[in-house]
Amino acid sequence: MKRWLLISFLPLTGLALVAYPRLHHHLLRFQSHRAATAVTAQIAPQLRDGDLIFHTSQSAQSRAIQLATHSAWSHCGIVYRKGANWQVFEAVQPVKLTPLADWVARGQGGHFVTKRLRDAATVLTPTALARLKAAGQPMLGHNYDLYFGWSDDRIYCSELIWKVYERGLCRRLGQLQHLRDFDLSNAAVRAKLRERYSNHLPLNETVISPVSIFDSPELVAVLNR
Q1: What is the residue-wise DSSP string for the chain?
Q2: pTM of the model
Q3: pLDDT per residue over 179-212, tens digit each?
Q4: Residue 13 pLDDT level (bands cut at 50, 70, 90)
Q5: Each residue of 135-162: pLDDT tens digit?
Q6: What residues does 54 pair with on adjacent strands?
Q7: pLDDT at position 19 over 80
Q8: Using CA atoms, how far apart are residues 1 and 209, in angstroms rounded to an integer?
Q9: Which of 112, 119, 126 has the alpha carbon at shortest distance from 218?
Q10: Nearest-10 crossing angle of helices 126-136, 157-169
Q11: Residue 97: CB partners within 8 Å, gap ≥ 6?
Q12: Average pLDDT over residues 164-171
């Protein structure tokens, strides 16, 4: 009897061992999203249309971006209100609007910072916000740009912000640079560059980084969570 029970128990044990990592992953995602939902509900009264939001992405390329730019910030987007809810206009795959709680939950540790135009109170009128949103509309649905090019064919996160604010409000947030201006010396950065470009690095390509926008004197900090 004991032997029969042992034989019956072994497959169940093996199944549990296989399933546990997946269950654990789903549990962590559920907990992260629940925490993000609570946080976003708390901060909602402090947000304004057009705010910028930054976090440390957990994507495969995040570490390379951090090393190359000497910054924790590797992803960013624009916050818009839609009805009673807040969403983030962001360049992922594809460019889209993402519920704010989902966006926060995707970041490392649920940590994020929001920034705002220093003169937003006078500049971001309903008419200006309409222009801002209209400037981003043509890029909605575009593919994410893994190669960080400056054309509109594909878009990456900080490029989206820079172009939307420049085209919608004639405001340039952050200093444009070239790929050669970044720190490309780290092995992780070089590996990611080889993966993307092989041996043909576009060192003169115009690039805008998340940290360049983050450090723009045009912006002031609003929230740090």
Answers
A1: -HHHHHHHHHHHHHHHHHHHHHHHHHHHHHHHHHHHHHHHHHHGGG--TT-EEEE---STTHHHHHHHHTSS--EEEEEEEETTEEEEEEESSSEEEEEHHHHHHHSGGG--EEEEETTHHHH--HHHHHHHHHHHGGGTTPEE-TT--SSSSEE-HHHHHHHHHHHHHS---S--EEGGGS---SHHHHHHHHHHHTT---TT-EE--HHHHHT-TTEEEEEE-
A2: 0.86
A3: 999 999 999 999 999 999 998 999 999 999 999 9
A4: low
A5: 999 999 999 999 999 999 999 999 999 9
A6: 76, 113
A7: no
A8: 67
A9: 119
A10: 130
A11: 80, 82, 87, 88, 89, 90, 140
A12: 98
Measuring CA to CA, how many Å separate 49 from each of 45, 117, 164, 179?
Answer: 11, 11, 13, 31
Closest listed residue to residue 34, CA positions, set 124, 122, 129, 104: 104
Q: Which residues contact 218 (CB under 8 A, 6 or more apart)?
A: 117, 118, 171, 172, 173
Q: How many residues does the chain have?
A: 225
Phi then psi dihedrals of residue 146, to 5 deg? -70, -15
